[in-house]
Amino acid sequence: MITQKMKYALKALLTLADESAQPEPQALTIEEIAKRSGAPKRFLEHILLEIRNAGYIASIRGRSGGYQMIKPAAAVSISELLRMIDGPIAPLPCLSRRAYQRCEDCADEATCRIRKVFAEVFWSYILILDSLTLDDLMKSSAVTEQVIGA
Questions:
Q1: Residues 52, 1, 114: CA angle, nearest 5 degrees
Q2: How far is CA 74 from the centre of its chain?
Q3: How much of the chain is in helix, strand and coil states, percent to nearest 5?
Q4: Are 36 and 29 contacting, i.e. CB atoms less than 8 angstroms apart?
Q5: Quick one: 40 exposed, middle or buried, by C-beta within 10 A (0-12, 13-18, 19+)?
Q6: What is the pLDDT of residues 55-102, one digit of tens each?
Q7: Dihedral (C-alpha) 118, 82, 124, 15: value to the nearest 10 degrees?
Q8: Nearest Cα residue to 129 out of 85, 67, 82, 96
Q9: pTM of the shown model
């Protein structure tokens, strides 16, 4: 499961992406992002700083300052964002691309049946997740509606 922090990050990014899609987009203050997204302001300050440091958004100082998207929504990888906010996404440490660790109780990775089964499932999951962008989240689909019942 994704953390609440990741949900807030996605809500904030979706709010900024929606604004950037407007004919005359404006920079949004943390207060405005919190209001539009429903994410608490006190968490957004830290989250937006992380996202800004990763190069997805920019902060603008001054009277009409705030945050705005600097990357198009189609260039914001959900899997990269997930790794940045939540850390490794593999179900087992021995399957992680960036945080690989050998399982302490595993005698032989090559013959580990648990690793093999989770590798197959994780491979399918990661193929989909790696292709997902913020732009995809902005669009509604019939499949999503079937899954969540919306």
A1: 120
A2: 13
A3: 60, 5, 35
A4: no
A5: exposed
A6: 999 999 888 789 999 999 999 999 999 999 998 888 888 888 778 888
A7: 150
A8: 82
A9: 0.82
Region label for 70, one of left (φ > 0), alpha (ψ between -120 and 50) or beta (otherwise): alpha
Phi, psi of 68 (to 5 degrees): -150, 155
Tell me how far apart the alpha carbons of residues 140 and 125 are, in angstroms, rounded to a whole number. Answer: 20
**Structural tokens at position 74:** 């189609």
How is residue 90 written in tokens?
Answer: 């593999």
pLDDT tens track for 18-66: 999 999 999 999 999 999 999 999 989 999 999 999 999 999 988 878 9
